[in-house]
Design goal:
By secondary structure, the protein is an alpha+beta fold. The protein is 40% helix and 24% strand. A hairpin with a 2-residue loop joins strand 4 and strand 5.
Length: 149
């Protein structure tokens, strides 16, 4: 018969495995994802976020902007803390990449209150769309039932 400590450890192991799977999924998403607290701290970033902005986990969001030492005067993301409503907006970075951004309040996160932001690179999506607009001749042959190489 299992002791309560063994049952507890088994459940902890299961939760750690589920967490690992979830983090792998978030890292596989081709957009950036991060959590942000009301105090501007960032408790989580996915792999794409780190590639774009560096490792800011545990730091302040405004530290992603070179030379910035204080929160931005107007921040579309922080409006969501007030409204508790999902907000979408478009941002263009210094390299000319445009992102569609979705900010959502996480209602179950009481201490600290958290938002999740997801950003998808529209420039990358447009390039992908253009790449797939013209089917190649080999693709057309397959669609016509042939497997000619």
């Amino acid at each position: 018969m299992e002791t309560s400590a063994e049952v507890l450890q088994q459940r902890i192991d299961e939760l750690e495995k589920e967490r690992s799977v979830l983090l792998s999924i978030l890292d596989a998403i081709p957009g950036y994802i991060y959590l942000i607290a009301r105090d501007h701290s960032i408790p989580y970033t996915n792999k794409r976020f780190k590639l774009l902005f560096g490792d800011l986990e545990g730091k302040q969001c405004y530290q992603a902007i070179p030379g910035r030492t204080e929160p931005c005067d107007v921040c579309p993301t922080f409006q969501v803390f007030k409204t508790k409503q999902t907000k979408d907006w478009v941002w263009t970075n210094r390299k000319g990449h445009s992102y569609v951004i979705f900010d959502s309040y996480l209602p179950g996160s009481s201490d600290p209150e958290l938002l999740v932001e997801v950003g998808l690179d529209l420039t990358l999506l447009e390039e992908t769309d253009q790449k797939h607009q013209k089917p190649s001749a080999s693709c057309i042959r397959v669609l016509d039932g042939g497997f000619e190489v």
